[in-house]
Amino acid sequence: MAKNEIDKVAKSYPIILSLQQNKKYSDLLCVPFYLNLIVSGGFVEENINDENNFRNLIWERIICLKDKCKKYGVLQSDVRKIVERIVFERASRFVVGVDSDIVDSDILEALKSEGIIVESRNKIRLKYDIFEDICFERYIDKAFDACHGSYNVFFDEIEKIGRCIYRRYQIWISNKLFVQEAREKFVYTLLTDNSIEAKWKKQTEIGIVKSKYCGLFFKEFQELLDETVVEELLDITNLYAFEAKINHSPALIMNVTPIGAARENLIGMVFEERIV
Predict the structure, then answer these.
(1) How confident is the model over 220-257, as pLDDT tens digits?
(2) Could you give the CA distance from residue 10 to residue 4 in angstroms, rounded to a whole number?
(3) 75 — phi, psi (to 5°)?
(4) Which of 246, 236, 178 has its CA nearest to residue 209?
(5) Chain Cα centroid distance, residue 55
(6) Would the pLDDT of 5 be above 90?
(7) Which end of the chain has less neighbouring CB within 10 Å, N or C?
(8) Are the beta carbons of 58 and 37 closer than 8 angstroms?
C-alpha cells in the first residue's frame, strides 16, 4: 500500500497511527494482509515488535486459535498438528487440497468457522498462502535450531518434505534471516563454506537477493565477500530477483518487476569498484 492509503486508514484506527510513527513498522504497514489483521485482530502495539514477531503472533493467535480453542472444545496442540499436516501434505504432494476426512470433525469446524481453511469438494487447504509460509517458517526454524551448526544435517532434515521445500527455504531466508545476528553469520558461512552442497548455496543466494532486508547483510559483510561470491550474487539477481504477474486485459501480457534490495547494494559495490 502507498503511504497516502495508509494515512487514510490511520485516521480511523489509532493503533495504525501509533505504529506509523515508528520506522521499524514501515514494511509491515505496507502489506494489506497485515494491516487488516492489526485492525481486526485486537492486537496492541506492545505485542508487535517487528514483522517476525508479528508473524509468530499470527501463528499462535490466528492460525492455531490460541484464544478460540476453548470455544470449540479442542486443544491448541491438536490444532497445530492438524494445520501442519494439511500444509505439509498439500505441499509435498503438489495438490490443490488434502482430504478433509483426515481432520477431526471438531477441529475441522473450528478452522472453517474462523476462516483458517477453505473446503471444496471434500478437499481442504489453508485460506491464505501467507498462513502456509508462516507454518513452513516455524518448521524450518526448529530444524535450524536443532542442527547446532551442522548445516548439512539441517538441509538433510528439511529436504525430507520434498522439492517444495526449496521455495519455502528461500522465503525463510528472505523474511527471517537478516534480523538476527547469528543467522546473518550463518548466511555468510553458506556463501563461503565449500562443504555445503551447491544446490543449497544457490537457494540461499536466491533468498538473499529477493529479500527486502538484505541491505543489513551487505552492510555488515561487504568487505568480507570476495569477488567470486559477489559475481554469483549478481548473476542470481539478474536471473531471480523479479516478480512476474500476468494480466489478461486488454491482451495477455506478463509484467516483470524487480524485487529485493540486493540490486541497489550490488550496484553500489560495482560503483565503488569492488568488482569489474
Answers:
(1) 788 878 888 888 999 999 999 998 888 877 788 888 89
(2) 10
(3) -95, 140
(4) 236
(5) 9
(6) no
(7) C
(8) yes
How far apart CA 154 and CA 141 sit, in angstroms, is 10
pTM for the whole thing? 0.81
CB 47 within 8 Å of CB 38? no
- Count of Cβ atoms closer than 10 Å to residue 200 Cβ: 18
* Grid cell digits, residue 40: 481486526
Q: What CA–CA distance (Å, rounded) separates 100 from 119?
A: 8
Q: Rounded to an integer, what distance in angstroms lies between the CA atom of residue 175 and that of residue 168?
A: 10
- Structure confidence by residue, pLDDT tens digits, 166-197: 999 999 888 776 565 655 667 777 777 888 88
- State the CB neighbour count (10 A cutoff) for residue 163: 10
Side chain identity at 181, as an amino acid letter?
Answer: E
Does the pLDDT at position 98 exceed 80? yes
- Strand arrangement, sheet containing 98-99: 98-99, 123-126, 117-120
Grid-cell match 548455496, residue found: 201
Q: For the chain, what is the radius of gyration of the CA atoms?
A: 20
